[in-house]
Amino acid sequence: MLSINNKTKPYIILACVPKLSLIAPLPGIAQLKSILIENGFLAKTIDINAILYHKCLDTNCRTLWDRHDSTFFYRNKYKVMIENSIFNKELNSIAKEIANISPEWFGVGLYGKHNLYTAVDLCFRIKQFNSNIKTVIGGPFVKYCGKNLLKYKLIDHYIIGDADKSLLELLKGNLDFPGIDRQSPHQFSDLDTLPFPNYDDYDFSNYLNLDDPGPIHPKSNSLYISGSRGCIFQCTYCEIKGHWKKFSQCSGVRIAKEMEFLHKKYKINKFIFTDNMVNGVPDELEAFCKEIITLKKQDQSINISWKGHFSYHSKKLMKDNFFVLLKQSGLSEFIFGVESGSERIRAHMRKPLTDVDLNFAMQELAKHNIKITLLMMVGYVTETEEDFQKTLEMFDRFLPYVNIINVYIGATLSISEDTYLYKNLSKLKIQYFKGSHDWIYQDNTPDVRFDRWFKLREHLLNNGYDVLDRQYDIVKGRQATTRNIDNYTKPLK
Fold first, then answer.
1. Comparing C-alpha atoms, which of 98, 138, 104 is closest to residue 119?
2. For 224-234, what is each residue's pLDDT tens digit?
3. Which of 160, 304, 355, 417 could form a disulfide with 185 if both were Cys (CB 3.0 to 4.6 A apart)?
4. 468 is in which domain, residue-wise?
């Protein structure tokens, strides 16, 4: 099943597990494989997420990957599902096969609650079959659970922060290196020195666009690509700074060379940037665009398109030909975090986007026929009914922009630990209760936020927008469990 040759037993197997997107293999473990091989460690990568999806394709478990299904987010739901399903049988089979291969190490990435329970379950099963295999977890969600997983001996080690150097040091036995277990996170900044990711272990026919509305999901023919880590902004609600203290940027030319390499080696035409914003350093984005345009002129068989997250700085910082270069380089879609139709709210968020700059960006993107997915947040701390109405009015103004292909509504504001809002709860006079979404600020209660969320969703649908409401079940669940404001207990802070 896993296509591993026992004659060349890997020293470490790196895996990703459900529930994750099936649009493309995740780049993190492919990058780590290149680094490990470069340093003399034989590594194998496995996309267990894709394997299990296709094993479950003709069963009731197929719906687990539907965007509205929340089974993987909740331990109780996961336990019920796993008790009697083909998923359980196939996961056990994979654990046995890894145990029989008997690598020294097994590593898995944690990207959120949506793959936490599967990752822990798989590590536990592998150890049951072969206690000699050492397990390690990494990824952005580890900071929330790694300490307890180690405490209860569900894993052998965890890595917080970038694993580019930390994983190497762990395999060498250097447990004192930053990022390993209870150590402070390590940030790797010299991105231009990293080897290109190694996707030799992947079957690209396994990757699908599940968001396509057709009866048969098309092959995605896509790869992720990373040009930076961190963010140049200090948005109050964002926890990126808890993972990357500093912003690091690859050179634009180096990003283009990696894209060319992956295109030629794996016959991939579509690329999705993982960056929090592709225009963190506008000059490097320009250099990337120019290099891709040059490559296309030199070799007309190169038919590359790309998309990524975009945060508009200011018209003053953008050169006159900025949007022309983007289009010529193959930009197909920008994911644009507008968050609110109220300039006052965006200012409080520390999001430097004025109404003038927003309107200019939307006009230019429409003029050059660049598709847009808008990211929206409902219920920011200081949001009033007047601010919310400005969001509704903004979408009324945006109706002529046919290049808006999707609107994504987040599941109301959650105040997470690594954010400015959480660190200043008392200063901002926010009443914080048991969960990141369970807070009150003046008249801004959970009930108010849920009501606005459904109003915005209805407004968008009534006006013909395509809404990516993957958080619908989560919002409904929160709405059902949140207590009435009169029944709130004493705040935690």
1. 138
2. 999 999 999 99
3. 160
4. 221-487
